[in-house]
Amino acid sequence: MKKKRHEAIIRLIEENCLSTQTDLLEMLRKEGFDTTQATISRDIKDLRLIKKVDDMGRSRYAVDNGESGELLGKYRSIFSHSVISADYAGNTLVIKCYTGMAQAACAALDSMHWDGLVGTLAGDDTIFALCRTPELANSMKEAIAELLG
Questions:
Q1: CA 5, CA 32: separation in Å to the nearest integer?
Q2: Domain edges within the chain
Q3: Beta bridge partners of 62
Q4: Burial letters for 30-46: b for 16+ Cβ neighbours within 10 Å, e otherwise?
Q5: Quick one: pLDDT at residue 138?
Q6: Among 101, 97, 96, 87, CA closest to 137
Q7: Which DSSP state fits 132?
Q8: C-alpha span between 56 and 8 (Å, rounded)
Q9: Closest to 105 (Cα-Cα) out of 75, 134, 132
Q10: Average pLDDT of every residue of the chain
Q11: How far apart, in whole angstroms, are the C-alpha atoms of residue 61 and residue 14?
Q12: pLDDT at residue number 69
């Protein structure tokens, strides 16, 4: 039963934007799994699920691609302490950084694996990030603004 539940969890988080354990629990119950919050919590740990920002700027569960949550936290810290602001024009995001910090911030940005991000280019104090659509660029700009506080 555990294996089938784990398979269902992975399928559900890939098909849906699930950002809380409650959301996941409700979806599992609709699929016929009678389970508890504590079991879901253990499943999340067993499956090494992480929270990831998707292409719409929403936080959602995803399968860890090998980088731990601690490492992701370090990337976010480097990024948030290096970046001054972000804006976009069309599908290009322009991220302004403190002098000399764009390379580190860009490496951190690349390591965060944002959905919809095609590629990045960093100079001394500026990063150009190419997004698939203007809407994704806007969502990413808003997510960055939220990350910067």
A1: 10
A2: 2-47, 69-148
A3: 50
A4: eeebebeeeebeebbee
A5: 94
A6: 87
A7: S
A8: 24
A9: 75
A10: 88
A11: 8
A12: 58
Report the pLDDT averaged over residues 12-18. Answer: 89
Q: What is the mean pLDDT of residues 4-24?
A: 90
The token pair that represents 43 in the structure block: 């499943």
pLDDT tens sequence across 22-76: 999 999 999 999 989 889 888 888 887 888 777 777 788 888 765 555 677 788 8
Find how far residue 61's CA is from the centre of its chain.
Answer: 9
HSE-CB at 141 with a 13 A cutoff on CA atoms is 21
Plot region of 44 (φ>0 → left; ψ -120 to 50 → alpha; else → beta): alpha
Token pair for residue 147?
């990350």
CATH architecture group of domain 2-47: Orthogonal Bundle (1.10)
If you classify domain 69-148 with CATH, what class do you get? alpha beta
